[in-house]
Amino acid sequence: MTNNASDWSQPKTSTALLTDQYELTMLSAALGDGSAHRRCSFEVFARRLPAGRRYGVVAGVGRLLDALPRFRFGEPELAVVSEFLDERTVDWLRDYRFSGDIDGYREGELYFPGSPILSVRGTFAECVLLETLTLSILNHDSAIASAAARMVSAAAGRRMIEMGSRRAHEESAVACSRAAYLAGFTATSNLEAVRRYGVPGAGTSAHAFTLLHNTVAGPDEAAAFRGQIAALGLGTTLLVDTYDITEGVKTAIAVAGPELGGVRIDSGDLGVWARQVRAQLDDLGATKTKIVVSGDLDEYAIAALRAEPVDTYGVGTALVTGSGAPTAGMVYKLVEVEGIPVAKRSSHKESRGGTKRVLRFARPTGTAVEEVAFPADAPAPESGGLIAHDLLVPMVRGGEVVAGLPTLDEGRDLLAQRLVSLPWEGLKLSHGDPAIPTRFVG
Amino acid sequence: MTNNASDWSQPKTSTALLTDQYELTMLSAALGDGSAHRRCSFEVFARRLPAGRRYGVVAGVGRLLDALPRFRFGEPELAVVSEFLDERTVDWLRDYRFSGDIDGYREGELYFPGSPILSVRGTFAECVLLETLTLSILNHDSAIASAAARMVSAAAGRRMIEMGSRRAHEESAVACSRAAYLAGFTATSNLEAVRRYGVPGAGTSAHAFTLLHNTVAGPDEAAAFRGQIAALGLGTTLLVDTYDITEGVKTAIAVAGPELGGVRIDSGDLGVWARQVRAQLDDLGATKTKIVVSGDLDEYAIAALRAEPVDTYGVGTALVTGSGAPTAGMVYKLVEVEGIPVAKRSSHKESRGGTKRVLRFARPTGTAVEEVAFPADAPAPESGGLIAHDLLVPMVRGGEVVAGLPTLDEGRDLLAQRLVSLPWEGLKLSHGDPAIPTRFVG
Question: What's the pTM value of the predicted model, to 2 decimals?
Fold first, then answer.
């Protein structure tokens, strides 16, 4: 197994109907009036970050580039769209493949309000069809990675297990595991993410296994622990809070001895219990037994446990729901037609016309200062002694995904570097402004 | 196309890895110590509703029953789990199919805190494996349907188009469309939901199409409208807010004449604009032209527009994010082992042991009064002159999905009936208690 985004064993089904109907009716109208073949440029950006967030994390690019070649209309897809489309449009779709160019921010890159994280160029017809699929993937994965990165910061180096699958759509869950790993989580409970993306797997036992060892004579926690250790070895983590935590820990060490790998606490005041259980374990000689805590943790709860003897955090609901921001709110906007910048003027929904390039400027120490977007055909702004990072990298050329794009592990490393580059306020959990400003030139 | 949940053309891939690793390690331990074959009963319930909500809507049952027969381990799935499982467990999984019984609340049924909406019975081994998949589907779809139902109530009979796909994971989006339709939405923008579930499709045009008709001479909204009408006919809906709404409406009627199907407003103060545009349309003789509004609508914004001349609401982000509650928070708990009720005693996470049945009592007028859960082997509580509805209906027997379960359309009808049965406070949008209490007996 590898972490290469394109290496997964799900059947390569068509992605063409993961699309809003209006993209196809627009196509029909554009083919009819001759505007379909105009050269266009679309950009993806977020108008704002979720309230109080200081940065966003780009995620999903690998999944998008995997879905793109499968955006083809076979006969089953054509049968659906021919219900509302004219024959000319259906014929055009039969031969459709995207043949344009895409540049984008790499996975794991930071973004800020207005950052054009994806630039899609080609004819109107070929670009307009990709709107929904592109946004679905980037909005979902970026929302999860952006929340996950804050949790990883709050955990300050401790192990993080993503265990939120049960609180998310079953396929969204797989993408959540991937995004969490990108953001620095250590492992996932989700086996499909293990298969598809090579994310390390984790998990040992639930309350059900302890409750299963219940007879007419009553509960038998020791029997459950013996069964688990026999199957999974002394390195396993025993769940000690089914009945009484102090009794559970005592039973765990009585059964396993002081070499037990870990205990998990999933309820109660986790800080209080972590301290108490750590003392109890140490008293019992189990000084190396790890403490795993789980149960409604979010970035704030994780941060609040920083002074406690917690070794591993298990995070579920807050991760897969983006900790209050389940979608990144990115939009896919037409910015240029045949070289002419275009922009709508609806109130509060302005977009900035023209294809753009973006540089992020950093001090020689590495600290980011600002992001500057400027017309792609204009000279780059002066750096003024700062170091410039070109953020939009070629991803698709002539419809083909370019070779050598970052793997998931490389994206994970990139994000870790980028977080270090933020001004120190940028990593604060409290509400604030974007960590660096974005300036639009020209 | 039909609305039958099992009629969709996606390849029938294995769902077995949409699972948390710990279910498989528990299986291994239980096979090892002989507890795997104990007769068990698991129940799915929500400990609480999202803050202030008065009811929840059960959704996803059809999807779950479609996924269940595909919960099989083929060689690709076995290769993944053999990385961490012993050979005996892998061999057991090779032959796995669920052979137990499932009863559940029907899709479209209401639920309240504690309602055991699904009862899964069989050996520990066969039931424990289904936890994650079951919860993923029910938690996601019920969260969306529960939010959608409130929006439909707020819309008071007006047309509702679900258009949130771009704000959700691409597969979650399809399930969101399905859940919204279950809850009473009229149509969806999502073409895969049209294909898979027979939800009516909708959609005409975005700002990009208007902006596309931009030349060196400047914008040409009239050309865009002409192109759209030529392709889609006079019944189409023109998007009039790309530049100036009043000008847009004027141009729309100039191009289309008073028989134009509709205009859409996607920005600005929707109530003010709806009134102004209605007056303008009427002045222009376009008295039957409908007004569609969209743009960050949630149930409260929809309700606030009740007095305005809006014909159709388009709802996106708030729908697919469950309007602040993106997951239903249901759990899957072991409640009985070999006839013995079991329950954990962790603080604040108590569960109620024993397999249950549930009756909902209603007055002869149809108004629901309370839900009563009681031991499945005990006699039903006295009705006291009320009408009793048995809520847990047989869904799977001996591993086979029973015939004749409600279709998506039947679930939609059921929910519409059930909402009428709530005490009137139950339909209020404001925060409050569950509409009816749930009582646990015995």
Answer: 0.96
